[in-house]
Each structure stands twice: as C-alpha cells, then as structure tokens.
Amino acid sequence: MSDSPAQARRILIVSANPLFREGLRKLYAERWGEQSATVHMLTTLEEALPALETHPDLVIVDYDDKAINREAFMSRFVAGEAPMQVMLVSLQESGQVVVYDRRTMTFAQAEHWLSNPWEG
What we know:
- This protein is of the alpha/beta class.
- It has one domain: 3-Layer(aba) Sandwich (Rossmann fold), CATH 3.40.50.2300.
- Helix content is 34%, strand content 24%.
- A five-stranded mixed β-sheet has the order 2-1-3-4-5.
- Strand 1, helix 1 and strand 2 form a beta-alpha-beta unit.
- The longest helix is centred in the first third of the chain and has 15 residues.
- It is globular.
- The model has no long low-confidence stretch (mean pLDDT 80).
C-alpha cells in the first residue's frame, strides 16, 4: 500500500450480500473518511477476478458467500505480482478475519524476513 496521504486507497468489497457490502463501506468511511478511498463494491467472482488486475490496495471478501469460489479467487491473488492485501471476513464466525499480504521484497529484505518472520 502506498504511504502517500494524498493518494486515495483503492478498495474492493466482494459480496453478494448488499448489507455486508454497504456496512463495510460505511465502516471504512467512518474510520478513514470518505476521501481516503475509492471503494468499488462487487457481487460476483466474475467481476472480482478481472478487478484484481486493477491493482487495488485492499480487497475485502465475504468468506461466507457461497457464490464466490474461494479457491479460484485465492489462486488469482497468489498468481499476481502487485502489492495487495486481501481480507477474508466471516459474518458467521464472529471475530474471524484472515489477512493475506502480497508484497515484493528485495533479496536482502527477504533474507532478513526469513531470519525471523515473526518479528514486526
């Protein structure tokens, strides 16, 4: 994710549930302000997969949505190269959020990370 405060974050919310999508959008706006992000709300996997190619900063996926093939979605996420975070949010599993962070490191950064991946 970019550190520039002037650049709006690009957020994708993927869920067939309109209450889930709108609730997350409002939560994000309350926390970070309306101008802090460009939020796109998608309802299907067919919309979400090509949207990953637009290099969003954060993708929030409704983990419980049966219409979203999680394996296909995660395969596309893993295959990409641009920095991006994906959050899998479950309404059924209270308090359960899984975050994946795809980033590019130099060899030296990766070597340092491998020496202690639990640091920081």
